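Exercise: predict the fold of this chain.
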Amino acid sequence: MVARITSILAFLTTLAVFGISLAIVLLARVSRGMRPGRTRRQPGRLQLLLTGTFYNENWIRAHLIPLARADAIGEIDLVVDKVWFDVPKVNYICPPGWMRRWLGRSGSRVLLVFLTAFKRRPDWLIGYHIMPNALACLVAGALFGGKTGFQLTGGPVQIVGGGVYGANSLLSKIGHESALLQSLLFSLVKHFNVIVVRGSRARDFIHDEKLGEHSLIITGSVDTDGVLPVEQQHDCDLVCVSRLIKTKNVDYLVRIVAAMAKEEPNVLVRIIGDGPERPNLHKLAEDLEIADKVVFHGHIDDVGRYLSKAKMFILPSATEGMSIAILEAMSYGLPVACMPIGDLPDAVIDNKTGLLLDQNNPQAAAAKLLAALRDDPSLQEMGAAARNRVVQQFSIGAITQRWDGFFRGRSLDPVNPRERSSVSRNLRRERRKEFVVPKVKE
C-alpha cells in the first residue's frame, strides 16, 4: 500500500514538473520575438553554464577538462554540489549550506541555475541527465536566452518510458512505464538546441524518434599520457570498477564468476567501488560459495595499480551510455568484456578490443571469458588494439577537438528530415525495449 501511494505521488509530481516546464518553454519562445535580442560575445569567448550530478573526480575530469581546453570557450560557470579541483576558465557555483537544508541537493542546483542564467546570460546552458539538470537548463534558457544542450550521458534509458528506468530518485519511484510521461518528456527533449550522446546507438535512437534537429556524439575523455602498460605478472583474472548500484548489474558478474569457478577453481576477480548493493553482493558470493574468488575492495583512489595487474577488465552494466571506466581500462592496454548495450560497442569491438558477452546467460558469458583468458597472445593483441582506439578517439586531445569543432560550427551532426529513418511505431516500441534492464537466467 505504501509503495502504491509513493508511486502515485511520484507520478503526479513528475507530471506537474514536466507539464509546467513544457508550458514555460512554449510560452517563453512565443514571447521571445517581442523581446530585444541579446548582445553576443566575441567569437572565441563563449560563456557556458554547466550543471550535473558528478559521482567522482574521474567522471568530472573526463567531461570538464576537454570543455575547458576548447579554444572557443571563454568561461564556464559550473553549478555543482561542491568544489572538486581547480581548472582554468571554470567558476564553481555551489549551494550554501542553508540552501541545501531547505531545498535539498537537486532543488539547490535548480535554483542556482536560474539565478546564474539570469545574472550571467550564458551563450550555452548544458545539463547532464534530464532530471533535474538538463530540464533546468532548458527552462532557464527559454526564459533568459541562450542555447541549450542535453547530455544524454546514460543513454536513452534516461527518457524511455518517461525516465522511470534511469537513476533519478523521483522517476524511479514511479515503478512503471508511462506513455503520458514519455510523451511529455519527448516533447521537452525536442526543444533542446543539441542533444549530446555517447555513441551511434543513442544517436540513431534520437533520429528514429525524431527528438531533435541536431545530435552530437561526444563522449567523456581519458588521460592517455603517462599511463603505464599492463604488467606481465598478473595478480587477478578480471577487474571491475563500478558503483555498486542495481543498474550496474554487478550481481550478474558474481554469477558469471560462479560459472567460471566450476571449470577454473583458481579464478580471481577484483571489484573496486562502493554503493548500497555491496552487502547484497557479499551475501550472493557467499551463497554461491565463491567468496574467496571475488574480492571487494570498496572505493579506491589509485585504480591504476589494479588495472595494470589484471588480465582483463569487465563491466556487467545492464544499462550504460559510454563508460569512462571502460575507456580508462582500455588506455592501460586492457581488453574489455561488457554487455552489448548502450554505446559500448562503439569502443568494445568483439574479439578485437574486447569481448561482448551474453547479457542474460552467465554460463555462456563464463565460457567466452575462460576461452579468452587462456589465450595470452590474443589477450595482448586485443589490449594493444584497445589502447590504440582510446588514444585516437577518446583521449583528452581528441574530445577537446570535437568540442572545439562543435562550438565553432564545424562538427554538428544535423539531420535532414528527408534522411531520417522512417521507423514504424511498432518497431520503435521494440527498440525501446533494448534500454530496459534484462532478466537474468539464474
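Check your answer against the key: The chain has 15 helices and 14 strands.
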